[in-house]
Design goal:
Blueprint: E1 2-9, E2 17-24, E3 29-33, H1 40-47, E4 55-60, E5 63-64, E6 76-79, H2 91-99, H3 108-114, H4 130-142, E7 148-152, H5 160-175, E8 179-184, H6 187-193, E9 196-201, E10 204-209, H7 211-216, E11 222-229, E12 232-239, H8 247-254, E13 258-264, H9 268-276
Parallel strand pairs: 3-8, 3-9, 6-7, 7-8
Antiparallel strand pairs: 1-2, 1-4, 4-5, 9-10, 11-12, 11-13
Length: about 280
């Protein structure tokens, strides 16, 4: 679906994005995870044909994005970081207007309903909260039911229930066979949603794999348990894949003598820090 080869880009004379190479497969949710200023939105702008002064090759659906025609936008949906909506129009008027730019589009009310905005459809966007605007901007990207979706921080600034609603829609779109490029600095979103995650720092790709493989790259999850011996509390730590061979643990389980047991595995954040030396937030 997308092929990036030896791509370089900079806003200034200093190099910024360098040695960028990756492929995005049909039907996957591909995530860019990185701290603020890493270049995630810049990458999205290049992949959607808004920044064309890159070097190397960026192909989307087999077309070098620099040479895209106008019909390119019939097949992609873009939810940029900052909502672009007409403030003086209502939510429904906004969607009707943007829908009219496409050859075909989906019914508008079910889309509004899917993000909980049906009751506010007649309100002017200037009276919308930040979260309402970002939900509206999100469904704007879905209007023409595109096969390829670019979502830039779709859950940022949303309360947990609305963030969950957006994540469910993203997963539904994937289930319909859509390919989705998502940027985030939220490791939970990346772990939950992404088929594969690219770690981006200072315009460079530092790692690329499934969230599970990245997490497991630091070794197996660990189990820590405590128990009493002669009135004193003892603690032992083993790896999760060795619990069956730990005689002490087996005996404690059989005799119901465990005082506590915890398992812990590294998070994507731990792996990010380890591989890049940088914090996500
Ligand atoms: N139009 C522009 N002109 C010059 N520099 C820019 C421009 N847009 C972004 N930059 C710079 O490029 C770098 C990457 O910005 P970008 O918006 O891609 O980061 P990001 O990873 O999306 O960050 P965030 O998580 O804060 O959204 C930053 O240093 C930023 O200042
Ligand atoms: Mg950004």
């Amino acid at each position: 679906m997308i092929r990036v080869q030896d791509m370089q880009f900079s806003y200034t004379k200093e190099p910024f994005i360098e040695n960028m190479n990756f492929d995005v497969q049909n039907g996957e949710i591909f995530g860019f995870l990185g701290p603020s200023g890493a270049g995630k939105s810049t990458l999205q702008k290049i992949l959607t044909g808004l920044l064309t002064t890159y070097r190397g090759s960026v192909q989307v659906n087999g077309i070098e994005i620099k040479h895209r025609g106008n019909s390119f936008y019939e097949n992609i949906g873009v939810d940029f970081e900052f909502p672009s909506l007409y403030e003086k129009l209502t939510a429904r008027e906004n969607l009707n207007f943007f829908a009219s730019l496409y050859k075909k589009h989906q019914a508008i009310d079910p889309l509004l309903d899917s993000v909980g905005l049906l009751h506010d459809a007649g309100k002017k966007v200037s009276d919308f909260s930040k979260g309402m605007k970002s939900r509206l901007n999100f469904i704007k990207a879905l209007l023409h039911d595109p096969a390829l979706l670019f979502l830039d921080e779709p859950t940022s600034g949303l309360d947990p229930s609305n963030a969950k609603r957006m994540k469910d829609i993203i997963l539904q779109e994937k289930a319909k066979g859509k390919t989705i490029l998502l940027t985030t600095h939220n490791m939970y979103d990346a772990t939950e949603l992404c088929s594969r995650v690219a770690f981006i720092v200072d315009g460079k790709l530092r790692a690329l794999d499934t969230p599970r493989a990245l997490i497991m790259s630091r070794g197996a999850a660990r189990v820590r348990y405590t128990y009493a011996v002669n009135g004193r509390e003892e603690q032992k730590e083993i790896t999760l894949d060795r619990t069956g061979e730990d005689d002490v643990l087996q005996k404690l389980v059989q005799e119901n003598r465990l005082l506590s047991i915890h398992s812990s595995e590294p998070t994507l954040n731990d792996i990010f820090v380890e591989l890049t030396g940088r914090l996500l937030q």
